[in-house]
Amino acid sequence: MSDFLQQMSESSARRAAAARSFTAADFDKPVHPLTLEGFDLIAEIKNRSPAEGELASVDGDRRQRARAYVDGGAAAISVLTEPERFDGDLAHLAEVVEVAGSVPVMRKDFLVEPVQIEEARAVGASGVLLIAAMLDDRALAGMLDCAFEHELFVLLESFDETDLQRSAALLEHARYRHQAARQKLLVGVNTRDLRTLAVDPSRLERFGPLLPAGVTCVAESGQHTADDTANAAGWGYRMALVGTALMRADDPTALIAAMLAGGRGA
Fold first, then answer.
1. Which of 2, 107, 130, 209 places its Cα 20 to 30 Å from the Cα of 29?
2. CA 209 – CA 66 distance, rounded (Å)
């Protein structure tokens, strides 16, 4: 695990240890399924990136931005909740849930314990991101099972060939193949090197032949234009997660529409 991931894991573990317990009564908000149309976008809201710096003010209007994402046709909205390096908070996710309607909202964080999935579910998330490199096989299985018990979708993020091999191995099990067929299990490839925090866009093309069959694969990081999504689609990805480009766009609704057109045209 890289130094950055190790720091995030330790910080996340401290937050998980301080989390409260949940009961069934806490999970009263609806879960919205992903509705996919050939090539789709997960549009991200985040205040800061360790690599890119400040992207929005801490008090930025997340509701207005979420509405713009919905208007552009995003299939889901990702919200960063990590507080130390991304200036995130669970309250930000709750704000977006309030205005997203039937568009599912995903908690993006460095999750290490099932209680953090329950936190997300309690505030209205319909999905969570998990990072394969942060979880051994036993921990990953427990996190997946918790998410699927709550009917959440999971974006399982990979950074290298080993991560992708582990993700593909999951699909050898009928219960995970079933979740993938239901669009509850997605496999992502992140082009950012978490040792240097630099983006290597060539990783999407290199890993294209390694993408597991029978699951929706997601291109993450380094997606800025319609040409980027067209390329990703050509390499076998059926979704893109776009954050920084949308946070900096003057018209995020138009950018989403253009990137969708690029991916679907390919």
1. 130
2. 34
